[in-house]
Amino acid sequence: MAFTESNKELDCCGETVFSPSVLQISKDDVTALQCKVVCLIQNGSFKEALSVINTHTKVLTSDIIAFEKAYCEYRLNRIENALKTIQSASQQTDKLKELYGQVLYRLERYDDCLAAYRDLIRNSQDEYEEERKTNLSAVVAAQSTWEKVMPEDLGLREATYELCYNSACALIGQGKLNEAMKKLQKAEELCRQSLSEDSDVTEEDIEAELAIIHGQMAYIMQLQGRTEDALQLYNQIIKLKPTDVGLLAVIANNIITINKDQNVFDSKKKVKLTNAEGVEHKLSKKQLQAIEFNKALLAMYTNQADQCRKLSASLQSQSPEHLLPVLIQAAQLCREKQHAKAVGLLQDFADQHPASAAEIKLTMAQLKIAQGSVTKACMILRSIEELQHKPGMVSALVTMYSHEEDIDSAIEVFTQAIQWYQQFQPKSPVHLSLIREAANFKLKHGRKKEAISDLEELWKQDPKDVHTLAQLISAYSLVDPEKAKVLSKHLPSSDTMSLKVDVDALENSHGATYVRKKAGKLTGDNQQKEPGQGDVKKKKKKKKGKLPKNYDPKVTPDPERWLPMRERSYYRGRKKGKKKDQIGKGTQGSTTTGSSELDASRTASSPPTSPRPGSAAAVSATSNVIPPRHQKPAGAPATKKKQQQKKKKGAKGGW
Known about the structure:
elongated, ribonucleoprotein, mainly alpha, disordered C terminus, 655 residues, phosphoprotein, 7S RNA binding, 32 helices, Serine Threonine Protein Phosphatase 5, Tetratricopeptide repeat, signal recognition particle
């Protein structure tokens, strides 16, 4: 929110010019001391100015210098002291009231701050009225954002970009994100127009001023789920290096929330921006708390267990009633596989803080389910009295009990919820819905009599409900058929039932078209005529079964002919050829026959493969033997003929 700080009325000395020689002559001169304090404030020396005031308390009383003292304390971030100084002043001047409003805003006492600014606007007329309206709109925006209070229409004309920006912040607090985005776009236009009129303002100065507006735009994108666009805009703002440490801290925190447990290295760099000096004085308590929570979560994601425990313990000591520190500690224990200790921690917190017991017990139940203890999880859920009758809780418990096959407990859950609605909200539609669901569940699990009582209760509530009556008749038909017949008389007749059926559309549907096509194949002679015309139906002749060509009536057929060949009693398997057995067996390069048989050197009777020089016997012995290279393999001519025949048959087309 845009909130302006004022130091415009510090020229309280009029035309008096401060001179150190005056104080040398008279150390306790009130006017001189007052002028010295104002000069120090104008120079930004707030500590020195406050020191002068505190050392001359006898002379500079609260009536004389209350505003200057309170302003120094305010600028030194001693907000509580500033409030005491303002309240102790005997006379509440306009400038003290102005400062009082700013102090209340910093203390986040928005109701009192709103009343103070309304009083100021009503009772003052000067050139600072626009600033007061800006501060008033900032208070309303803070109420909407942090306290979730519905903002009232102040009737302020949004003529400046600060007013537009504050209005957008109020809309974000209400969840009206699209309207807020339009307001921010308008604020951006007004900001550019107002700053471009000044010739001394550069484009960089304009972008620096627009950084806070762009930051809020990125936040809206993040809330809308457009995380990529939001992240891009956040990084653009960081590249500008704005001087506002509060803005940088908020943007860095939002980037960390987008990263979650991913891109941890970037998150560790961004978290340094949240530790900048003076951040604690620029942000609200809830913003600072959110940053600390995210630091603890980041420590958990980066496996810094000690740091995570330290941060969460610090957060718990600051706000003992807050739920998140305990949940972070429990999550860290679960990461360390200490589930029992995590459940114990949550149970202790639930006992100490009954207001948060429901949320804590839901977490405990989730941990029990993760451990596989579904029954214990059901017991924890049923102990949450304020949620026992809720449809979501009933559905969860029934599902879990059904998973454990504990049908009695599931029916008991239905019964308790129905009794609660019967007592407190008997006419609620949820009541009837629960009764119907209970009846369906009981029918599904064979509890017909119990289901009948529920259905009868439903029918009494609405006797015209045909669906319930049909269910009741169906249930009675399984238990008491006579009762089902009696109830069936209450069903409406087919004549009274108005079925709004478009016959043409039904006939033109896909299924009807298929049936009509089949019916269209029938000729007029084959169609049935109306009874009473005396036509006799033609009997279809049965065709004789075809017999096989080699059928011999003298030979009895094989009784196992209908069985597959492998399943017949006389099947002995196929005969395998010897050559097939010898192919492809053994390691690569090996042969099926023994190596000793092929080794000619080991056989004594084997003739030499080549004739020895000068040996006639060798010539005569080998004269009739054809050399191996000239031998033709057996069956070669036959295979050649077959290949030629195949080529002739298939040689129709070219290459």
